[in-house]
Design brief:
The chain is mainly α. The protein has 17 helices and 4 strands.
Amino acid sequence: IGLLGNGAVIWVTGFKLGRSVNAIWFLNLAVAYFGFSVILPFMGAFRALNSSWPFGLAMCKLVMTSLYFTMFASVLFIVAMSVDRCILVLYPIWSHNHRTPRMASFISAGLWISAIAVTSPYLAFRKTCKEKSGKIVCYVSFTDLPNLDAVEDQTQSNTEVVMHILKLLFVFAIPFLIITISYAIIAVKISSKHLVKSSKVFKVVTVAVASFLVSWVPYSVYSSIFLFRDRVPDVVKQAFLLLETIFHSINCCFTPIFYVLITQRHKGLFRKSLFSLYESAFKDDLHAPSNTSALDTVKRHIKRFSKVVTIHLYIVMCVIGLLGNGIIIWVTGFKMERTANTTWLLNLAVAYFGYSATLPFLGTFRALNFSWPFGLVMCKLIMTLVYFTLLASVLFLVAMSIDRCVIVLCPVWSHNRRTPQMASFVSIGLWVMAFIISSPVLVFQVTCQEANANMSSSRIFCSRRNREMAMYIVKLLFTFVIPFLIITTSYAIIAVNISRKNLLKSSKHFKVIAVAVVSFFVCWAPYSVYSSIYLFHDKMAEAVEHTFFLLAISLQCINCCFTPIFYVLITQGYKGLF
């Protein structure tokens, strides 16, 4: 898919289209994705052989360097497209006079050179080494030490840390800041001028940036974990390796399809040739007259697609979530001996079960185009229950992380004081805290009859805009930012202590908690982004809002409904319980 899709983009933007700035950006981005796709067979063989490298030293250097080179180049071109779009909005006259294909070509050449410069150390320091087990390792060594044991040398370790920090800065932190600032400036401009009706190119760039965020967060976390690879449980490393591999592969292979789908009217889509679709997707149409009917048609198709997918997702996930979490509640509440771990899992499953119970109401709400048919009382109860259960699940994930950290730091105290009674009291406190934080939703959630609707809409009513913003900021703090910091700190402390003590052989529950925490990172980041977008929903492109809504809801449902399946698969002790 990656070779065919990106090959088609390269052919269209390089040979079929006239030279334009947008075509040059997409051509170079497709070349980077194409290069990454070429490498995938080698990486697949590498993983299939249990990370043993069969292709020799020269291919070790070439393939691994090409991997980082293409990944970094793709990041640079996404950043360039964001900055270019920002300049186009800020300085339209200057852009009309100076934003030329020649300038874009020079900038592209500079970006490729920058990618080579940043990734060249991997070409110089890549080596292969055969272990006693017969496994051939392709690794980075910044010294001339002859064996893998020398990796623990202080000089090697310090250099490796510096290289990983530089890589994280250049492939995630700095690009993330530049992209965020660029689109924040664009959002401000859109609020003061009617620039949201600019062309389909804006939608294409938005999809590219969204895919960047989704695909690079797992990779950045995995790179950070790699610094402590000898101290982190294998299940955590394998989980993040799987996530970053999946997201990067999907990002590089399916982005061309996103380009076509996001910029085309779906009606009659398959009556056009593939290359005509790509051609129309990548044309630079900044000076073309606006076509309101075509824009409205695209918006209707995006809404319809989002609604159909969301409704089916709600139905399926409701059934799976109720059954799966119901089983976990039955097992941990009635079949297993009461322990602190079973208390955490029981309460987490109760929170997920409660969220699953709200899905039929949310599905109906979505099917009726966000028109609420159940009355004011149910509006308050259901919407409060949604926020209450989501917040409670986050609090219990945080509690499990802190609990595991306390076990590692104070094993004697934990053995004497870490009782089911204490876990129960803490759980009650967390439920009370979740209710207090979500109680404003119960107070301020109202229904109102809109002028052009037959039924009521459900929304949070605040007399002032700043109150609404304050509520969403509080929600973001308590559902993502603060939990993220606590969980990260807890597992960093665990990693440091594991390096000094042989604590890695703790029970099966560590695997369960690790999976739950991984699902938290993956599932809450899009929801937090969507909550931020909602603050500016009247200023944001509708395609962006619907894209993040679908992504956030999908991952939330998957998190709440499939976590019990993860428990069963990863915990051997559940086998004999039935």
